[in-house]
Amino acid sequence: MSFAANLQSEIERLESMSKKGVSYANTQGMYGWRNPIRRDTGPLLAETVEKYGCRRILEIGTAHGLSALHLMSGWSETEGRELHTIEWEREVGSRAQELFHALELPATVHVGEAQEVIQQVCTGVYDLIFLDAQKSHYGAQWRKLLKLDRVGPGTVLLADNVIDRKDECKELFDALSEQGLAYEIIPTECGLLKAVLP
Questions:
Q1: In this structure, are residues 156 and 129 in contact, taking their beta carbons and an 8 Å threshold?
Q2: Domains of the chain by start residue, with CATH
Q3: pLDDT of 187 above 60
Q4: Cα angle for residues 157, 138, 37 (degrees, 5° grid)
Q5: What is the distance in angstroms between the CA of the first residue and the CA of the last residue of the chain?
Q6: Cβ atoms of residues 113 and 88 within 8 Å
Q7: Residues with Cβ < 8 Å from 114, sequence gap 6 or more?
Q8: What is the pTM (predicted TM-score) of this model?
Q9: 175 vs 123, more confident
Q10: Alpha carbon 137 to chain centroid distance?
């Protein structure tokens, strides 16, 4: 089976999962939602990766690995490409890593609090950043990525749930305004923000 066919088969399996899960936020609000991305969002992730030729990707919010698979489906091949994804819950991250390993994908799951992982593990400049974990943490995560030079000219920022959970994303909007970075909001079911660093 080809690279693309392998990914598509697994995407279809994960897409069949319920999109109406329950919140698993703890009292510190560290977890966010387990819900997978919506069906209208996945193809946009792949199209963005393909359009901008993104070879190094950082995702914050692994969950079951569905969005990571969509992102990697924007590649025509895996050589010279890598995806790093951050998951708070160890058991969930381990299952996703097993899936990526079984599919022989160049994807690494880092378990832990996103800002700490960004600081300690993630290095170099990423071509694409996808934010899809705790929405109220988007702004702080973006500021940390900027401060640590994990993004640069041409880096693409994508952030999910900026319409249905707009209030929780306020800090991200504030950070982008302070930076003077233009963005667009694609009217998916949940709202997908896209910005490209000049």
A1: yes
A2: 3-15+38-196 (3.40.50.150)
A3: yes
A4: 70
A5: 39
A6: yes
A7: 60, 86, 88, 133, 137, 141
A8: 0.90
A9: 175
A10: 13
The per-residue DSSP string of the chain comes to: --HHHHHHHHHHHHHTS-S---B---TT--S-B-PPPPTTTHHHHHHHHHHHT--EEEEE--TTSHHHHHHHTT-S--TT-EEEEEESSHHHHHHHHHHHHHTT--EEEEES-HHHHHHHT--S--SEEEE-S-GGGHHHHHHHHHHTT---TT-EEEEE-TTTTGGGGHHHHHHHHHHT---EEE-SSS-EEEEE--
CA distances from 89 to 12, 31, 39, 71, 162 (A): 24, 8, 24, 21, 23
Q: Which of 18, 1, 19 is nearest to 10 (CA)?
A: 1
AA identity, residue 59: E
Share of the chain above pLDDT 90, in %: 75
Please give the Cα distance from 189 to 192 (Å, whole number).
Answer: 9
Give the Cα separation of 35 and 18 in Å (integer).
8
Q: What is the pLDDT of residues 118-143, one digit of tens each?
A: 998 888 999 999 999 999 999 999 99
- Paired tokens of 159: 């952030």
Q: How does pLDDT run across 6-29, given as a tens digit for each residue?
A: 788 889 888 876 655 544 444 444
